[in-house]
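As noted in the main text, all predictions were made from sequence alone. Below is one such record, for 4-hydroxy-3-methoxy-5-polyprenylbenzoate decarboxylase.
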Amino acid sequence: MSISLSKTARRATRIQPAHLFACPTAHNQPFSVLRRPPPNYPGHVPLTMIERVGLAVGSAVGSMVNHHRHDLVASLGEATASPYFISRLRRAMLSNPTGRRILRDRPRITSKTLSLDYLRTLPEDTIGRTYAAWLDREGVTPDTRDQVRYIDDPEEAYVMQRYRESHDFYHAVTGLPVFAEGEIALKAFEFANTLLPMTALSLAAVVRMQKDQRTRFWDTYLPWAVTNGLKSDEVINVYWEEVLEKDVGDLRRELGISIPPDLREARRIMREKKKAEKAVKETKATVGDAWRTN
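Prediction:
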């Protein structure tokens, strides 16, 4: 009897071929494209596994063709985060007291929840002032982050939303600007710190850089990003709303983040060097023309 029951149990738990491309709902009931369940939260779009793979491939190709399509980058992040990576990030929050409070409170980072006018009045070295100054300098706002749609678990969806809305704080704390080397260096930092696949896939944009940009990235900013991302605390567990008046240097030290080399200064030096080289070439050409004329 025990042998018979064991065989029956094995048959009952065997995965049927029809379920290979199904995706579990909040109630662990499989579904297909012809039997789609209701959303688990406002804006949620349940996907089968084959749909998720198609979304990941299509978003990856589209974002490589047009890197300004932030909606495709967001879709790629969600399609590749499930099922393991976003769950790991959620567990990291649950294992941290501050992370647990963030999950319980579920704060949002928008221009409505943060007063940028107030942040601009804070002392210069505070996190809030640094964050507001970074937004002003780069011409962006907290409202530019897409809403999560393709992650099934509501709490994991919030974790992805929190990561996405905290991105500008990561820029502000690290001091990395939004142009090519800075943005990709921050993605490398985020991958080492969060392990979200999309951040690693974003490194493919290195091939589109100019030669001097690639040199700075490989020689300077990638080593900084990997080292700091691995050694620092999980940045997802920072309750940004509670540390706005804190000194940014103190937070960097608490997290274990060192300031990267000044990317703007490196670019300025490179521009001046190119101008000087161009001036020398033009001078030689002018002298050569004058010599041939005489």
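Residues 127 and 248 are 5 Å apart (CA to CA). The longest helix spans residues 263-293. These features were considered when defining construct boundaries for the mutagenesis experiments described in Section 2.9.
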